[in-house]
């Protein structure tokens, strides 16, 4: 019999509602990898938690389009609350299979090549230096609102060329919208997500009208021009791509910057290693991405019966690939998989940016932001320390600190 069989009653199930999960899901992931690496959840979705299986699933031809899901208890709950269970009505590239995916991704990929991204370095350095100047003046701050959120938000807003907006409102709305990427059973929360989705979609639709009147040399204008061509991008697709970039540009990187700083401050010797040798920073960023994945899960829908780890998953199944668990799988990383080691060899083989055709389009940008932030942080604040209670954002997927109080001396 395969070791990856369906769980019996006494075998653990993925349970994001368990006490303490938001603060530390890793002990549960370890149990799943050992005892139920491929299993079906009573809510009707499947969970895959080992590196080998996660990686194979993401690279397989499995779908991302919701219309291929055989309805189950979770999708019925979500439908009842009016939620489409996907970002921006399923029209963004994240929710489309080839050939639509290929067409949509091609339209924006030029802006994200390593070369185009590298050109942003001076501006990112300038933004980070300004934020660190403010932090130095204050001495003690919450690092989330003073650096981890405003930096990626400013960068993506400038890249797109969005009009001035109420940042806090956008953050509030996108914080709700990204919860459509995780299992939610609370009907009130489901309704709030749906309303936030509508409001944010409306906001971006208004931005499209503004951009038509205020074209510039930016990504948004390039997309508006593609939409005007008609045969490459429809009106709704335009709104969906901008919204995806807008949200993905900051809701993920905030967790790398805040969660990464927290991990380094908790493992003080690793922070000290960077203070002593800043050349380690690029590898440290990969290790931080591995150690605490800013995006904890990805999902696929099987288009045919699919065998993973000896278990047959039926056609039309919603399968959650737990990236964060794969990144801690001792079968892949060895016995010290749970340790943070900024000099870990091969750290970049993590699956934090996914794999296959949907591999994160913004990976070079996220890496660059990480390099600049951690380089500047360790060189300017060698004595950086935690200075109060850390709270978590309570999310299952785009998980990270909500507050991160630190002092710089
Ligand atoms: C896709 C993670 C930053 C834009 C993805 C996926 C993951 C991911 C896991 C794949 C989802 C899947 O396979 O279903 C991350 C992490 C980030 C980050 C951990 C930061 C640390 C960014 C940034 C941007 C961005 C800064 C853009 C400004 C995108 C886009 C996709 C994507 C457009 C969809 C790609 C496709 O479907 O082809 N990201 N991301 N991401 N990401 Fe990121």
From TrEMBL:
The keyword Metal-binding applies. This is Cytochrome P450. Belongs to the cytochrome P450 family. Gene3D superfamilies: Cytochrome P450. The lineage of its organism: Bacteria, Bacillati, Actinomycetota, Actinomycetes, Pseudonocardiales. SUPFAM superfamilies: Cytochrome P450. InterPro entries: Cyt_P450 (IPR001128), Cyt_P450_B (IPR002397), Cyt_P450_CS (IPR017972), Cyt_P450_sf (IPR036396). It comes from Prauserella cavernicola. GO terms for molecular function: heme binding; iron ion binding; monooxygenase activity; oxidoreductase activity, acting on paired donors, with incorporation or reduction of molecular oxygen. Keywords: Heme, Iron, Metal-binding, Monooxygenase, Oxidoreductase.
């Amino acid at each position: 019999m395969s070791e990856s069989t369906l769980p019996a009653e006494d075998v653990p199930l993925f349970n994001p509602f368990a006490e303490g999960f938001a603060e530390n899901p890793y002990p549960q992931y370890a149990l799943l990898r050992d005892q139920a690496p491929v299993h079906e959840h009573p809510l009707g979705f499947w969970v895959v938690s080992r590196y080998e299986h996660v990686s194979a699933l993401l690279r397989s031809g499995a779908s991302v389009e919701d219309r291929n899901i055989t309805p189950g208890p979770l999708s019925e709950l979500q439908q009842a609350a009016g939620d489409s269970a996907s970002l921006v009505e399923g029209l963004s590239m994240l929710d489309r299979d080839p050939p639509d995916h290929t067409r949509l991704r091609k339209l924006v990929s030029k802006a994200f090549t390593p070369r185009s991204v590298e050109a942003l370095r001076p501006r990112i350095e300038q933004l980070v230096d300004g934020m660190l100047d403010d932090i130095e003046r204050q001495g003690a701050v919450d690092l989330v609102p003073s650096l981890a959120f405003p930096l990626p938000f400013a960068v993506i807003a400038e890249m797109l060329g969005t009009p001035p907006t109420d940042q806090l409102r956008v953050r509030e709305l996108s914080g709700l919208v990204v919860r459509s990427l995780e299992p939610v059973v609370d009907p009130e929360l489901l309704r709030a997500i749906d309303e936030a989705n509508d409001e944010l979609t409306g906001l971006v639709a208004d931005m499209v009208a503004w951009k038509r009147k205020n074209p510039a040399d930016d990504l948004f204008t390039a997309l508006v021009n593609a939409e005007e061509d008609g045969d490459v991008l429809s009106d709704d697709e335009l709104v969906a791509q901008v919204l995806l970039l807008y949200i993905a540009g900051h809701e993920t990187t905030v967790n790398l910057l805040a969660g990464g700083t927290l991990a380094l401050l908790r493992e003080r010797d690793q922070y000290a290693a960077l203070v002593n040798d800043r050349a380690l920073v690029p590898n440290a960023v990969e290790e931080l991405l591995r150690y605490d994945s800013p995006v904890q899960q990805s999902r696929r829908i099987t288009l045919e019966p699919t065998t993973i780890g000896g278990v047959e998953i039926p056609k039309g199944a919603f399968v959650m690939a737990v990236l964060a668990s794969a990144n801690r799988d001792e079968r892949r990383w060895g016995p010290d998989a749970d340790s943070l080691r900024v000099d870990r060899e091969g750290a970049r083989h993590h699956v934090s940016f996914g794999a296959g055709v949907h591999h994160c389009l913004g990976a070079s940008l996220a890496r660059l932001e990480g390099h600049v932030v951690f380089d500047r942080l360790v060189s300017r604040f060698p004595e950086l320390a935690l200075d109060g209670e850390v709270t978590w954002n309570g999310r299952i997927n785009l998980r990270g600190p909500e507050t991160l109080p630190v002092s710089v001396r």
